[in-house]
Prior knowledge:
tRNA_(Gua-N-7)_MeTrfase_Trmb, S-adenosyl-L-methionine, tRNA (guanine(46)-N7)-methyltransferase activity, tRNA processing, alpha/beta, 8 helices
Amino acid sequence: MAIKPPPDRLYGRAVGHTLRARQAELIETLLPRLRWPVPFTITPRETWLEIGAGGFEHAEAIARLHPEIGLIACEVFANSIASLLSRLAPLNGVETIPPNLRVHDDDARPLIRSLPDASIARAYLMFPDPWPKARHAKRRFVHPATLADLARILKPGGEWRIASDDPTYQSWVDQVFAETTLFTLLEATSTRPADWCPTRYEAKAIRAGRTPRYWRFARA
Ligand SMILES: C[S@@+](CC[C@H](N)C(=O)[O-])C[C@H]1O[C@@H](n2cnc3c(N)ncnc32)[C@H](O)[C@@H]1O
């Protein structure tokens, strides 16, 4: 399969709209406390990674459901990060920051390249931007080059969980993973497995009548 290498920036649009004053204040004051590599305030049993966290609903749910793990969630859009921060901002002085959640507020790919070998036990890529046109295939996060980077940072047997509602992306995932020996397919299903958390884009897709697909791949 001849696929062009990924461009430097995967998202071909501005990284957010103008922030409201409160959002800008939270980015200024609260984000530095959460921004990776600020250490987790627990000693995590293992570290997980989420790529393209959107409004962080899934990341927050995962972090609260698994208090023993550390989760680094990556997102480029300042408005989306501000939406997480608004939910975490102390309410009546009560702290709501999950001790095991950290945010990488930039492109996930350089972060992935900077992480040590076998340092991540699980990665999530939930409803990535589909880039359905063939000429944009190089922008898709699932890409042979990215597979090699993910394989390096995942522990042997570590899982990469992916979901997509876009038919072109669904075929693409099957095709790209069929051509690698770095990962083995554990499960592919159209029903969200019981231990997965919902996401905002998943709800949107189901409302629009699309059928998501969920994959679990293991680092070989
Ligand atoms: C379609 S949204 C899905 C959001 C969320 N995962 C969900 O399911 O609701 C994809 C998100 O990935 C983010 N994204 C795309 N490329 C990225 C990259 N290279 N690094 C970090 N985030 C990225 C986008 O900004 C966008 O918020």
